[in-house]
Amino acid sequence: MNWIDLNSPTQLDAIWEASEIVVIFKHSTRCPVSGMAKRSLEFESDRIPNHIPFYYLDLLQHRDLSNKITERWQVAHESPQILVIQGNQCLYHASHDRVDMLTITPFFS
Fold this sequence. Notes:
This protein is of the alpha/beta class. The protein has one domain (3-108): Glutaredoxin (3-Layer(aba) Sandwich), CATH 3.40.30.10. It contains four helices and five strands. The chain has helices at residues 9-17, 32-43, 63-73, 101-104; strands at 3-5, 21-27, 54-58, 81-86, 89-95. The protein has a five-stranded mixed beta sheet, with helices on both faces. α2 (32-43) links the parallel β2 (21-27) and β3 (54-58). It is globular, with a radius of gyration of 13 Å. The mean pLDDT is 95.
């Protein structure tokens, strides 16, 4: 899996302004449920087309960016959480045991 480290507000600005679909996975490194969700995504990563940017947000290091996501896309913060975003729209979001690759793959076709 080719995670893109989400670590700056500039990246969020670029996502907001882009027309392509991107995925953001919000992960807490201290949470076992989050760890299981991350492993599950990685196990199913062959389902993602290579051109889809897949961002990884470490919540312990960048909670401020999670807050900006909440403000910008109007999606309440949860962890773990996956968001499918296209520009200024959040097309889909899920958290905890609903973080699943099979649920998001229809957005890529």
